Amino acid sequence: xxxxxxxxxxxxxxxxxxxxxxxxxxxxxxxxxxxxxxxxxxxxxxxxxxxxxxxxxxxxxxxxxxxxxxxxxxxxxxxxxxxxxxxxxxxxxxxxxxxxxxxxxxxxxxxxxxxxxxxxxxxxxxxxxxxxxxxxxxxxxxxxxxxxxxxxxxxxxxxxxxxxxxxxxxxxxxxxxxxxxxxxxxxxxxxxxxxxxxxxxxxxxxxxxxxxxxxxxxxxxxxxxxxxxxxxxxxxxxxxxxxxxxxxxxxxxxxxxxxxxxxxxxxxxxxxxxxxxxxxxxxxxxx
Length: 287
Known about the structure:
The chain is mainly beta and about 290 residues long. Helices cover about 0% and strands about 45% of the residues.
């Protein structure tokens, strides 16, 4: 068994994961629908310093207004290469004039990819190099190739989930309505079937999971195991009839519909003190 990856300095993004020479990662702009339109241009973007959307794409920090688009700016920034080898890729994004216009905190964001046999470990590390505490959110967004035309897919958690909480998006913000998402998504308290209409109401966002791992099955054959230990939220997402499934570990979510738009009040935002580091990781075992 052999695992190979390709990454890009743009967003420090994974652009290819090949397992035994078979591509496992969605190939972005090269994948077109029947009308020749791109399903989704990305592969596995890094979500920083926000996950999801800000209310009206605006937040206030120290009384000043800042604008950021969905999922933040890191996915579109050029990272510096720290190390590239057959087994390990490491990148860093350091605060600069462009980031300070959108986000006034001084930081260093390290992204590393480590291959261990058939396992890929993705680690995010944030350093506070400011003279004050900084606040941020962070998450992953890898998209795995699936074929809904002929194959049946399901996500199975390692444990029965009796206290799971689902969140509903309303125009990109977390809503209190929860008019359609409920425990009926789970069969046997463990499985979510992936169908053409599974994401007709946008992403499935979850917290309160007792499981720290899930498995993706294709026709009852296990394709991968995903370990999201250390992340508060888990999201599943795709587009209608799209040939990919995103499995997304998040530390935070989008703004709530009643957000006061003050960044330090943003729910679940991580506070990092001066000179401190924050680190989290997830891993994927390919089968």
